[in-house]
Design a protein that fits this description.
single chain, alpha/beta, 2 domains, two-stranded antiparallel sheet, 8-stranded parallel β-barrel, TIM Barrel
């Protein structure tokens, strides 16, 4: 059976986010990932949830490269693993130039190199080793009077490291060095656009697909009939247009590139052009119903259940659910229905 997860991000409604996670645990959800993007930080929320939950696995989904040193990331991960009694997974991602450079004021250059070296340094810290590293992005310790040090925290090499990746090189690196893949913008019928690179990285490291946890996410919503379904699909188009045309910078949008590789090149190009011109409604108008249904878990109960079977057959180990609903009760109801549907999938 697929494991189940969700992702939350703290907004103005912190109490609603907190209550959603606590109730989701009672419904039987397996994992909760906490995002930080350009809003709240993830570790603060994870520390709170570690104290309020008993069974739920918690993860940073994601902590962004460049805004913390690799050792600071390792310290945070070790602390959260201790606070949660071993229920923490470390999710890392390169983010993009708009957030890293435009918000944090640090260089985005060479994300591939920084990711590889960051993971290597983190694993050294997890192992309790004296941290000594000489790479292209990081030099620890810096030349001078300093000497290598080890963290005073107890070693813990059991913390899984997930990478959020979309570009071919980063996907290959994920297959080579990560314990799991935090994916998005996933179309099962175009899954080879991801898996060919993940498998190449796995082969390079002498590993198999079963050595990598595939965690994919999508919005889930249940329509009572065709009229409600059309309304739901229409409401999702502007969000998808933002991913295609508004994420990243004017020259770097990994979401846009991922959809292009999965067979949506013409739509992606049209949406990009209109969004960059400031025409948000025009951009959304190019997003087709078919594209929304292919990239989400929106539909009647039978449709959602069938899409979940397709995801499972394509190799998704953990499905990350973003349940629709205008209220806490509505979101929890949607989540409960999705969990029931997943439990009916054999294997």
């Amino acid at each position: 059976m697929m494991r189940t997860a969700t992702t939350v991000e703290v907004s103005a409604d912190w109490s609603g986010t907190r209550d959603f996670v606590l109730e989701a645990e009672k419904l039987g959800l397996d994992e909760c990932w906490v995002a930080e993007a350009w809003g709240s930080d993830a570790p603060s929320v994870l520390g709170y949830l570690a104290a309020r939950t008993d069974r739920l696995r918690l993860g940073s989904g994601i902590m962004q490269l460049g805004v913390r040193t690799p050792v600071a990331v390792a310290q945070t991960a070790l602390t959260l693993a201790e606070m949660s009694d071993g229920r923490f997974s470390l999710g890392l991602g390169p983010s993009g130039p708009q957030v890293v450079e435009g918000l944090h004021g640090v260089p985005f250059a060479k994300p591939f190199t920084r990711m590889r070296e960051t993971v290597e340094i983190i694993r050294s810290a997890f192992a309790g080793e004296k941290i000594s590293f000489s790479g292209k992005a990081f030099q620890i310790p810096l030349p001078g009077e300093s000497r290598p040090m080890r963290l005073s925290s107890l070693p813990n090499e059991d913390i899984p490291i997930y990478l959020a990746s979309l570009s071919p090189r980063m996907l290959e690196l994920t297959g080579e060095i990560a314990d799991g893949w935090l994916g998005t913008s996933f179309v099962p019928e175009g899954a080879d656009a991801y898996f060919r690179y993940l498998d190449a990285g796995l082969a390079k490291a002498g590993r198999r697909r079963s050595d990598l946890v595939v965690c994919q996410g999508a919005e889930v919503a249940f329509a009572a009939d065709e009229d409600e379904l059309r309304t739901m699909v229409g409401g999702r188009k502007k969000e998808l247009a933002f991913s295609l045309g508004g994420m990243g910078s004017a020259s770097t949008n990994f979401y846009h590139d991922a959809y292009r590789r999965q067979g949506w090149a013409d739509v992606a190009a049209q949406v990009w052009e209109r969004w960059q011109a400031g025409d948000r409604d025009g951009a959304a108008a190019f997003v087709t119903d078919e594209m929304v249904l292919a990239t989400t878990l929106i539909g009647t109960e039978d449709m959602v259940r069938e899409r979940l079977r397709v995801w499972h057959a394509k190799g998704v180990d953990t499905v990350r659910l973003y349940p629709a609903g205008d209220t806490l009760d509505a979101r929890l109801t949607t989540l409960g229905r999705a969990l029931d549907a997943i439990r009916q999938i054999p294997g």
